[in-house]
Each structure stands twice: as structure tokens, then as C-alpha cells.
TrEMBL record:
Residues 295-457 form the DUF418 domain. Keywords: Membrane, Transmembrane, Transmembrane helix. The chain crosses the membrane at residues 99-115, 135-156, 177-197, 310-330, 350-369, 389-408, 420-441. The keyword Membrane applies. It comes from Tunturiibacter gelidiferens. It comes from the Bacteria. Residues 1-28 are annotated as: Disordered. This is DUF418 domain-containing protein.
Length: 466
């Protein structure tokens, strides 16, 4: 693979210089990084990831849990059934899991970037202290966000992963990092999907239920054990049935006062996080972070490799992930979105499709970045990436205001495809505010607060005249 890092004509303003600004690295003692230098492939990828994550999270913000991931039949039986199905296919083929995978990879890359640059500046004796304080504050931000704003927070998970796992891995070779990350995703996270989501339990019970049904069809009397299996299976099927009553009840439960929300969910956020993290969320995040650390070291995330490398990565990744998604979603659709079919054809291969599809989407985005065909259009996206933490929190506040806190209270009132109108509106705000903010300031407001807390000293905020 041929490196093109030294080719100014190829990288232009998408140089990796300055990408530590969002990552709370120590500020330079010399002149500030110029605006053109701060636009990088990492910033742009982070911007794409942050905007793309909302494509999936918007379902969580906007409606009952029945409509997350794959919504039930009500979304595909009304006048907009085909439109909803198209939206579903697009989400799963290009965004589901992939944006989260990309965001996690970039967080892992930031660990290498932060520590390597600090050590090269002669601050090796202080880098561990800075790293620990930085991620401890991230944990605090995550607890605040998850408790008081939205319980779908990811900051606590990232901060915990950084504190527990990532620092000792920063010196490993790229191949070792990629292998370890892939194993975490494909083995440990697959185990987490099977156990935490109830997939394994459902498969075991369905196998027993099939034996009971066969006995009934043959006219054999059921044993007490078989009757118990029959009852358990019927209860599981009923639990997964989506009725209008269940949907209405969850919508009513969501439209409670903010104080009731805190009492019911917010103050239990850390318990919920602790219960699902060890085998479900952390293997996914840490796996992607390790892969990101390895890909950063190879120059992959810095757009330094050849076009052929990215083209083949995208092609092979999509060849693995897209057919699985098409078959899986179609099988689910044909079954009337029966929960066991979704488990078998969509959730079970999820870790593989996230890894393959996530790498494919990342490679495709880097091809766009390297081509410079959309240079001006990518600048606002890079600005979102440079202010990713601020935009992440702002997005949560905006969505909660639109769907629950504000006067409209749209939670559960929009069709599956209609929530994307809110999505586009939030994107416009993210892109506009980020671009305008960085004209005057060096960092996003929360990034500045994070830096200042990390070094326990107020950091320069206004952009200096060059």
C-alpha cells in the first residue's frame, strides 16, 4: 500500500495537522493552528459519524421502543408502507451500527493521537495523568447527560472504556489491535447479543416449542413439562406482539413531567449502564476502538493510503454486509416482522455486518474526502466533527425538546419516515452553528470546558488573529 502523506496536492487542506484540537490535547505553545490546517480527514469522518448516528437515534427520541431498529407491522400497513420500508432498508444498509462503529473507531484513534503527540513534545511523564483526567471528566459528562437529558448516552461508555482498557493498548502493533478488536466484535459481542437481547433464550425455547407442536399435531397427549414449555412459548410470543394498546401505553408513559422522568429513568441510568455494559455494549465499543487505533497507526483514517486500498475495502465490506441485510430484512418483512425471524436473520449476524459494513462506509467516505470533489460541502461537516462533543449534547437537547419537553410533544405522533424531517432540521442547526462558531472560537463550548477541566486551567477560547 503506497503512502501519499507527503503529497500536498493530494491531501490539500485535509491534513491530519490539528486533529488533536477536539481531543483535548495540550495546546501548542507556538502559533495557533491555522483554519485550513484544522480541516482533516479525521474531523470530516467524525462529522459524518455524529450526523449519521442521529439517523438511528432519532427513532429512540421520537417514538416507543417498538419502533427502534426494526419497527413492527403498524409502520408497514398504512398508506406510507412502501416509503417506510425503503427508509428501513437504507438505514440498515448504510447506517445501522456503522456510524456508531465509525464514531468508536475515531475515539480509539484519538487515544493514539493524544498520547503520541504528547510524548513527541516531551511530555511523556505527564501524558498518563492528562489522559486519566480527560476521561474521568468524560465519565462525569456521560453521567450528567444520561441522567438529566437522555438515557441513550454513549459518553459514559466511552469514558469507561478509555479508563479501563485503551491506555495499555496504545503501543500495540496495528495488526494486533485490528485482530483483538475484530475478535471482541465477532466473538465476545456476538455472545453479548445472544445473551443480553434474549436471542439465545428465544432459540432454545422455540426449539422445545417445535417439539411440543409436533406432538400436538400427532395427537399425543402433552406431558407436564411440555405443557410448561407451551405456556412459556405463548407468553414469549405475546410479549413480543405489538398492539395498539401497548404503543399507546408507552406513549402515555413518555408524556410525563420532567421530574417523573428523572425518578423513573434518569436516576437509574448508572444502574442500567452497569447491567448491560460488561457483555453487551463494552465489547462492541472497545472492539471498534481498538480497530480505530490500529487503522490510525496505518494511516488508513488519515486518508494516507492509495485509492485502491479504500476502494477494495468498500467493495468487500459491502459485498459482505448488504446481501445479509437485504435477505434479513426481507425475511423479517415476509414473516410479518415475527420476532424470532428478526433475531435469526438480522440480530444474529449483526456483529459481522457492523464490522464489514462499518469499514466499507468508512472507506467510501475517505474516497469522497480524498477526491476533493465536494471540498466546500465537506467543510461544514468537518466543523461538526471539530465540535462533536458540543453537537452531541446539543442534538440530545434539541430532540428531547421537540419530542417531549417543548410545546409540540411529538413523541409517538409521527410516522416512521416523518421523524426524518426532525432529523434534517437538527442537521441544519448542527452544520450552521458549528460553522459560525468556529469563525470566532478555537473550540466548541463543551470542548473548551472539557479542556479547561482536564488541565484545571482556563484555555484560550477566542481565535487569535494570524
Amino acid at each position: 500500500m503506497t503512502s501519499i502523506a507527503t503529497s500536498a496536492s493530494t491531501l490539500d487542506s485535509y491534513s491530519p495537522v490539528g486533529t488533536e484540537e477536539e481531543l483535548a490535547g495540550p495546546p501548542h505553545a507556538v502559533a495557533p493552528v491555522q483554519r485550513a490546517e484544522r480541516i482533516s480527514s479525521v474531523d470530516t469522518l467524525r462529522g459524518f459519524a455524529l450526523l449519521g448516528i442521529l439517523i438511528l437515534n432519532i427513532d429512540d427520541f421520537g417514538g416507543p421502543m417498538f419502533f427502534h431498529d426494526i419497527p413492527p407491522n403498524p409502520a408497514f400497513t398504512g398508506p406510507h408502507a412502501h416509503l417506510n420500508l425503503i427508509v428501513l432498508f437504507i438505514k440498515w444498509m448504510f447506517f445501522e451500527g456503522k456510524m456508531r462503529f465509525l464514531f468508536s473507531m475515531l475515539f480509539g484513534a484519538g487515544v493514539v493521537l493524544l498520547t503520541d503527540r504528547a510524548e513527541r513534545r516531551g511530555a511523556a511523564d505527564k501524558v498518563a495523568d492528562v489522559y486519566l483526567r480527560r476521561n474521568m471528566w468524560l465519565v462525569v459528562l456521560g453521567l450528567i447527560h444520561g441522567t438529566f437529558i437522555w438515557n441513550g448516552d454513549i459518553l459514559l461508555q466511552y469514558g469507561s472504556a478509555a479508563l479501563l482498557f485503551l491506555y495499555p493498548c496504545r503501543k500495540l502493533k496495528p495488526k494486533t489491535l485490528f485482530t483483538a478488536g475484530s475478535l471482541l466484535l465477532l466473538v465476545f459481542w456476538t455472545y453479548g447479543v445472544l445473551q443480553f437481547t434474549g436471542v439465545a433464550q428465544a432459540f432454545r425455547l422455540s426449539s422445545k416449542a417445535a417439539t411440543v407442536i409436533a406432538a400436538q399435531n400427532a395427537g399425543h397427549p402433552l406431558t407436564p413439562e411440555q405443557k410448561k414449555v407451551e405456556q412459556q412459548w405463548n407468553e414469549m410470543v405475546k410479549k413480543h406482539e405489538v398492539t395498539k394498546q401497548k404503543i399507546d401505553e408507552e406513549i402515555a408513559d413518555a408524556h410525563v413531567s420532567y421530574l417523573n422522568h428523572l425518578l423513573d429513568e434518569g436516576f437509574n441510568y448508572e444502574k442500567s449502564f452497569a447491567s448491560r455494559s460488561p457483555f453487551f455494549t463494552l465489547p462492541e465499543s472497545v472492539g471498534a476502538m481498538l480497530i480505530g487505533m490500529g487503522l490510525y497507526k496505518t494511516g488508513f483514517l488519515l486518508a494516507e493510503l492509495s485509492y485502491g486500498t479504500y476502494l477494495w475495502t468498500a467493495l468487500l465490506g459491502f459485498l459482505v454486509s448488504i446481501p445479509i441485510y437485504i435477505i434479513g430484512i426481507w425475511k423479517a418483512y415476509e414473516s410479518g416482522f415475527f420476532f424470532l425471524t428478526i433475531y435469526k436473520w438480522v440480530y444474529l449476524p449483526y456483529p459481522l455486518t457492523e464490522l464489514a459494513g462499518g469499514l466499507a462506509v468508512t472507506a467510501a467516505l475517505i474516497i469522497i474526502i480524498k477526491s476533493h470533489a465536494f471540498h466546500r460541502l465537506l467543510r461544514p461537516i468537518a466543523a461538526v466533527g471539530q465540535t462533536a462533543l458540543s453537537n452531541y449534547l446539543l442534538t440530545s437537547v434539541l430532540c428531547q425538546f421537540v419530542f417531549l419537553w417543548g410545546p409540540w410533544k411529538l413523541f409517538g405522533k409521527l410516522d416512521y419516515y416523518q421523524v426524518n424531517y426532525v432529523l434534517l432540521s437538527v442537521w441544519v442547526i448542527n452544520l450552521t452553528l458549528s460553522t459560525l462558531w468556529l469563525r470566532a472560537f478555537e473550540f466548541g463550548p463543551v470542548e473548551w470546558l472539557w479542556r479547561s477541566a482536564t488541565y484545571w486551567k482556563l484555555q484560550p477560547m477566542l481565535k487569535k488573529a494570524i
